[in-house]
From TrEMBL:
<feature type="binding site">
    <location>
        <position position="80"/>
    </location>
    <ligand>
        <name>S-adenosyl-L-methionine</name>
    </ligand>
</feature>
<dbReference type="Pfam" id="PF01209">
    <property type="entry name" value="Ubie_methyltran"/>
</dbReference>
<keyword id="KW-0949">S-adenosyl-L-methionine</keyword>
<comment type="similarity">
    <text>Belongs to the class I-like SAM-binding methyltransferase superfamily. MenG/UbiE family.</text>
</comment>
<comment type="pathway">
    <text>Quinol/quinone metabolism; menaquinone biosynthesis; menaquinol from 1,4-dihydroxy-2-naphthoate: step 2/2.</text>
</comment>
<keyword id="KW-0489">Methyltransferase</keyword>
<feature type="binding site">
    <location>
        <position position="62"/>
    </location>
    <ligand>
        <name>S-adenosyl-L-methionine</name>
    </ligand>
</feature>
<comment type="function">
    <text>Methyltransferase required for the conversion of demethylmenaquinol (DMKH2) to menaquinol (MKH2).</text>
</comment>
<feature type="binding site">
    <location>
        <begin position="102"/>
        <end position="103"/>
    </location>
    <ligand>
        <name>S-adenosyl-L-methionine</name>
    </ligand>
</feature>
<dbReference type="InterPro" id="IPR029063">
    <property type="entry name" value="SAM-dependent_MTases_sf"/>
</dbReference>
<keyword id="KW-0808">Transferase</keyword>
<keyword id="KW-0474">Menaquinone biosynthesis</keyword>
<dbReference type="GO" id="GO:0043770">
    <property type="term" value="F:demethylmenaquinone methyltransferase activity"/>
</dbReference>
<feature type="binding site">
    <location>
        <position position="119"/>
    </location>
    <ligand>
        <name>S-adenosyl-L-methionine</name>
    </ligand>
</feature>
<dbReference type="InterPro" id="IPR023576">
    <property type="entry name" value="UbiE/COQ5_MeTrFase_CS"/>
</dbReference>
<protein>
    <recommendedName>
        <fullName>Demethylmenaquinone methyltransferase</fullName>
        <ecNumber>2.1.1.163</ecNumber>
    </recommendedName>
</protein>
<dbReference type="InterPro" id="IPR004033">
    <property type="entry name" value="UbiE/COQ5_MeTrFase"/>
</dbReference>
């Protein structure tokens, strides 16, 4: 796997996720110290899926992130470019309509979804701008985007401690619990290289989203960005 930069090769990233699919959710629980469950609840509240709505869950992996939207009564489409992740998800939740798709060329018509969301996947896309524009394209006018992504802790001493954990603490833990420890070294480096909260907000606005705002979770380890597609006309 190539060392992390913001120049990512889609085939390599997909292969990396194929390799970790079987133990991906368990490994995330361990490495995030259980915080990922709180983050998923925050995403579900921000998306606010309603019965009869259509929700696109991009970079859905095994579909764990999609379950709250489906439970709320929304028709939920888990989409990912890793066939390994999709196959594992289909094995666990065969009733969900798992769909293979590249974030920069989504296989959906214009204005299809009421809500679109991506959790911990945007930084793994080769072209962030293209992905944000594609999400805008498939969202109906007035619809919502929710992006949950690792970010930059806002308190400097905590930021230093967190960076130390990413680069020194995370790899040995991943080696014990993951089916592909090298993938988590890449993930740690990709988190360090990712834009901070205001920079990601600017990218959303550049892509055409309006009313962009964000909320920090766990001191800024994660940021929840939101935006709205402009109304038609």
């Amino acid at each position: 796997m190539t060392r992390a930069t913001l120049d990512k090769q889609p085939r390599e990233v997909a292969a990396m996720f194929d390799a970790v699919a079987a133990k991906y959710d368990l490994t995330n629980d361990v490495l995030a110290l259980g915080q990922n469950r709180r983050w998923r609840k925050a995403v579900a509240r921000a998306v606010d899926a309603r019965p009869g709505e259509r929700v696109l869950d991009l970079a859905a992996g095994t579909g764990t992130s999609s379950l709250p939207f489906a439970a709320a009564g929304a028709y939920t489409v888990p989409c990912d470019f890793s066939t390994g992740m999709l196959n594992e998800g289909k094995r666990r939740e065969p009733w969900l309509p798992f769909t293979a798709g590249d974030a920069t060329r989504l296989p959906f018509r214009n204005d299809v979804f009421d809500k679109v969301t991506i959790s911990f996947g945007l930084r793994n896309v080769q072209d962030t701008d293209a992905a944000l524009r594609e999400l805008l394209r498939v969202t109906r006018p007035g619809g919502r985007v929710v992006v949950c992504e690792f970010s930059h802790p806002t308190w400097a001493p905590f930021r230093t401690l967190y960076t130390e954990y990413l680069m020194r603490g995370l790899p040995p833990v991943a080696e014990k619990v993951s089916s592909s420890p090298d993938a988590y070294v890449y993930l740690a480096e990709s988190i360090r290289a990712w834009p901070d909260q205001p920079a990601l907000a600017a990218l959303l606005q550049k892509a055409g989203w309006e009313r962009v705002a964000w909320r920090d979770l766990t001191g800024g380890i994660v940021a929840l960005h939101r935006g709205t597609k402009p109304a038609a006309g």
